Amino acid sequence: MRNPLHTIAISLLLSIPSASSQAQNQDKPFFTVEGEVLRPLKLTQDGLYKLRQTEVKAKDREGMEHTFKGVRLVDILDSAGVTLGKDLRGENLVKYVVVRAVDGYEVIFSLPEVDPEFSGQTIILAYEVDGKPLPKGEGPFRIVAPNDKRQARWIRQLTSIKVMFSK
Amino acid sequence: MVTAILVTVASLVLLSFIQPSTPEPYQLNYPAYFGSRFTIPEDNPMTREGVQLGRMLFYETRLSKNNQFSCASCHQQKFAFTDGSSFSTGIDGTPTKRSAMSLANLLWVNNFFWDGRAGSLEAQAVVPLTDAHEMGQPLGESVVKLKKTANYTALFKNAFGTSEISEDRILKAIAQFERTLISANARYDRYLNGQPVLSEQELRGMTLFMTNPLPAKNIRGAECGRCHGGPKIFQELFHNNGLDKEPKDVGRMEVSGQEIDRGRFRVPTLRNIALTSPYMHDGRFNTLDDVLNHYSEHIQQSESLSPFLAEASNEVDGKGLLLRSDEKKDIIAFLKTLTDSTFISSPEFSNPRK
Q: How many CB atoms sit inside 10 A of residue B329's CB?
């Protein structure tokens, strides 16, 4: 006979999506969302599929147009409980987002720059280009900011997104 | 009269023991082009007295088990605070796992060691002090020895306000001294300050260093600046730079457990690079020529090779930078402009007992 408390504990564990997905995705590449968030996240590609998928067209450094598929940065931040939309006012307007790559390279976006209510560009966290996973050295996750004239913020091999207050 | 003076002196001496002294804040001095993107821990503000104590401790052999090694054994000022060896030998005679790093401009570093595993200088310092193959002495033992050594009680009091000698204070003082090791007086700095001090060859080398190659447009470059760029000639990055297909030392992967970090190590500062041979985490290259030849012709392909190194070449579809020999000479000429002779001779950084 199984201990009933044990069964309850297991079913509780299974009902918490983050706990179960973390357990099965331990070896899958992931990135974190942290800082000024209500819910810190650890997201794998499977986790991204649960959010709204978006495609953007953007030109690479050589001027060739590609279709990038991923999730809008604003939707990822929203799922972590970041002050966006009607909450992006007052002191929240001095928040910024630090995006970090596996080699330690970092770039920032201001929070209003990410929010479509303020910004004219759709910044996405991409995982596919022209229907294929991002190539080695770029993926599994990268930022695509289609309107940036230079691509220094199209950060490759992204590992963390951190929301900060400018102090 | 004499008695009165004696009483006054005696009471002053007594007062200095009772009253906490207030250390004087240390004024950091660095060029504006270095920027102020650094953090000094809130619980370890820099003071002149703290730095002075840290300097004493940096050169203190009593911090080692056999009283023969100090931090300065492997971090010698004349070598820009490294030791000229591939690996260093500690108290037990065995070589260290990795090459001793040059200590320059650490104020702008957040993650220490070749694999970035220590989050502060305070956390870094404890490792070589206590590692059985380096200085090999528990901090508690160091505290006991310092308490028995003349002057340290007063030095700790001056630095921290009270005379307590503790493990924590030893680390804090050493970290304070290390934060003052700023190298910003090379010929390259005079160039950055607008003086025309660089030769034609050095300027050609600088341009190659800073330029990313684009063979389709006939633009030649060595792309060094992508990772070693900016006025500090340092950015805090970690890359697999193609030394081995299958690295014996997996580097940052040991810290992260992630395959993508296999063979990934710190991209070090290139300031004083002409003084800090041999090069790489294992000191495998004796000369700058060896280093340039590596990046030019001997990059080893692997899954975790830096994408920048995998892509950078001066030939269409080339593997490696494929620089000409005159270009390598120009780049080395530029690298030599990063040598700061005042850094390696400054009395502020030298052994205070000599």
A: 16
